[in-house]
Design a protein that fits this description.
Elements (H helix, E strand, L loop, with lengths): L15 H4 L2 H13 L1 H9 L3 H21 L7 H16 L1 H13 L1
Length: 106
């Protein structure tokens, strides 16, 4: 059972620096690799960067919370990133079946 997360979040006042950071590039690469058609559609509609930015902030927030809970510094980014990947998976799950179906018929 997945945790409940809010509807897909966008930030149209995103910081270009945040999105172009290493964390941003990694998350963009993840969406492109796992959801190529969703990635392309979001890119063409200009919502990819506003979609990714809240995920970067969520990852930074999780890293901070985990550190304050006593997690070791090494591996914090990976744990937080995996949690954000699960969040992305939960958010894009309605598109997941469409992705599979489109890939099977192309």
């Amino acid at each position: 059972m997945h945790k409940e997360f809010p509807e897909i979040e966008f930030n149209y006042d995103y910081s270009v620096g945040v999105v172009q950071s290493l964390k941003g590039k990694i998350l963009l690469g993840h969406v492109e690799e796992i959801y190529p058609k969703v990635y392309k559609k979001m890119y063409l509609e200009g919502v990819l960067m506003p979609y990714i930015e809240p995920k970067i902030i969520k990852q930074l927030d999780l890293e901070c919370k985990y550190r304050m809970q006593g997690y070791p510094i090494t591996g914090l980014a990976e744990i937080a990133r995996n949690d954000v990947y699960m969040w992305i998976q939960d958010e894009l799950s309605e598109f997941e079946e469409n992705e599979v179906n489109k890939n099977n018929f192309n």
